Amino acid sequence: MMLRWPSFVRSAVLTLALAACSSGGDGGTTQPPVTQSIGLSLSATSGTIARGASGNSTITVSRVGGYTGSVALTAENLPTGVTADFTPSTLAGSATSATVVFNVGTTAAAGSSTITVRAAGGGVTAVTSTYALTIPTPAVALTAGTGASSIVVGGSATVPITITRSNGFTDVVTLAASGLPAGVTATFTPATIAAGSTTSTLSLTVAGTAAAGASTITISASGTGVTTQTASVALTLTAAATPAISLTSTPAAVSIVAGANGTTAIGLSRTGGFAGDVTLALEGAPAGVTGAFSANPVLAAGTTSTLTITTTGAAVPGIYNLTVRGTGTGVTATTTTVAVTVTAAPGITVAATPTAVSVAAGSATTTAVTITRAGGYAADVALAATGLPAGVTAGFAPATLTGATLTSTLTLTSTTGAAVGAAAITVTASGTGVTSQTASVNLTVTAAPTYTMAATAVSAQQGTAGASTVTLTRGAGFVGTVNLAVTGLPAGVTATFNPAAVTGTTSTLTLTVGGAVAAGNYTGVITGTTAGLANVTANVALTVTSPGGGTGNVNWQFCEAGRFPLWFAFRDGTTGAWTRVTAGANQTYAFTINSSVGGVAYAQPLSGGPAQVTINYFTRAELTQMGTLECVNNRATKALTGSFAGLGAGQTGTVNVGSSLGSAAFPTTTFSLDADDGATDLLGFRTTTVSGGTSVSIVADRAVLRRDVNYAASSAIPVIDFNGAESFPVQTAQFTVNGGGSDLVQVYANFQSTNGNFSGFAFGALFGGASPYTVYGIPLARTRDGDLHMAIALASTLSGSEVSQTRLVAQYNRELANRTLTIGPSLTLPAITVTGTSPFARLKSRGTWQTEYPDAVGAGFTQSSGTARSWTLLASRGYFGASAEYDLETPDFSGVAGFDNNWGLRTGVATTWTTNAQGGLTGFNQIIEGASFKIAARIGTVTP
């Protein structure tokens, strides 16, 4: 048998042999035997092993010197709870490898230790190797879902909880939550995770009262022997969504031809948990456009409804934004808009401009007829007119509108025989394939242009001239020029018209009477001619008187040409005949009254009528005085012009030159007037009209006073400057008025210069207001002897809009100072009777004298309808003597020479009557310092 040496033995022997050979000699010395031993090594010299786990390492034992004995393996220094298992635990023979397994018990203490592995065999020295053992501390790890949760207030949510056990930890884990906001509760399922289980579910429940906001919840996991672990959950509480609805329209714009329909889908979206029905409504649809929904209301399960929009042919083309409104219980209404474009259907419309025309009989008029094409309609349109009144024809130019031609001229021609009146003419426009359309033209046929003429009577002495006013009354729109001429006048009378070609309504006919013309009554014929109309005539009555007007103890003279009498008569006493008097030199009427009383009557020119008749019943002394006052109160006049400076917005300048008044309201500054002849005074005021509630006052602030002026006829008055050096502030005073009662009270003051009468001024409370009233006048320092302010308080009783009675008190004082005025009582209502109707109407006013008004009485009868006529009767108490009554009757002058019955009042015509009585002034020269008088009047109507 061959003996095999281990490899390391063979290596040692070889080494020894080589050494011997190298020493020289051929004989060797016997070497001692090799020492046997063992070596030990571990494949893993350290490890971390958790409790309940194990770890291993491979053991390698090296045998030296041919050692073949058994080697026993053991472990030393094992920690409590740790065991070591060797496989095999003994290496026999030549075995060199084993495995050691370290088993860490569940109760082993955590920590580090060094275990010694020992190899021992017979005859050899035992060897060791170490294993560094680490037993880690048991632990648990925790995760909470994604670490965040968002919950709507009133709702709930879950968060998955996962644990991970490590380092031998196998025990139960208890879960808990902290940091919960108010109103939030947490529940774990399960709250304790059993051994072997790793999950739980966290349920978060949010009360409806919880506040919205963010917070952090801490989740903790704890177990025996392990450190408690935590995880955070970022909790966001959001407010509960409000139940709501919203609408959409698809498409949002619809185009429809008038007369057709279109649809759009209305989409409904519910949010916030709303699940109720929704009612739909269409709003803003114009005339001719309606809508209907396929589903209305839209039930809880529905989300759409189809809106069908229907138009009529009358729908006006255009773009309309219609509103679809959705409403439901518990939600705010919502809307969506549908833009509907209505396009015109093919068709036409027609209109006339102007729609109302007027044509005089025998002439023509036109109106423009315009069509509008719609919907692309381009065919010809024919025009026709119906409803024409008799005598009127219609013509269109053109009668057919083609292509781009849209307007035609309708000419309506009236014959001279056409009936006067109104007619509605229908213009019809018709075309192929479209409905005919109409337009109305209101035609008024008026009478052919015409005019009438009237002339006032003229009275002139031989060798003088007189004037007649020729009045043209134009009718039926006549505006042409009328040329005037007069015929039929006696030889020696020449006539001049100013103007002779009348474009307005009046002309002045001046008749110059030669000295050789016989006294008497004449009639001239005035002829008016104008193109296209028949001539029109009017008579003018001329009375020629001789210069010798007679003599007597009473002389009446007239100085103002416009007041020269057409006829003059007197009566001696209270009864008897009236005697006509003709004018003498300088328009003086002389006559004799033997009785203590008498009457004077005269007819004067009346604008708009044949004459104004005045009858005066007074004592002989009073009549004598009145005759001398006519030329004082009614002087001859001269034309003047002028202008104001210093006027501003809302201001008026007013000026008197003597008794003549001129005015201008800003921005106008110029004026004209007919001033009295001779020297007089000029007085101007600057005023503002002030309204307050129901009151109206004229307030003066500056005045200009020029003394002793005598401007040349037809000249310009030097500028009246209210801001200039000659102007001065006005004087004011407070007047307390008693007796006005509930009547409308007016309080104002006039200024009467010793060198002129400025009775035209009236500044102060014109309407309404309350006592005391402010009046305006001239400062005392600027007055002269004889200057007087006349303060007036007037109370008017209104019956509806008409004045039925007035009461007046006036007082004269040089100085305008605070004073008291007391208005008298009402005038007792007089009896108004008709005393005759032929040859003209005659009226009487009869009443009783009152204590407050004992001095004079007057009556007036005026007809203003048609041709104006006016009669005035004046009487003093002295005329009636001791009689307790007054009796004012219009006389019958039809038998008096020269009287024209056409001057009398007409029967069947409404007549305004006025009766007034006066107290306080018994003569004509009693206007002195402190003088005062009262007047009361009654007003009514009567038809004779």
From TrEMBL:
Residues 1-25 form the signal peptide. It comes from the Bacteria. Keywords: Signal. PROSITE patterns: PROKAR_LIPOPROTEIN. This is Uncharacterized protein. It comes from Gemmatimonas groenlandica.
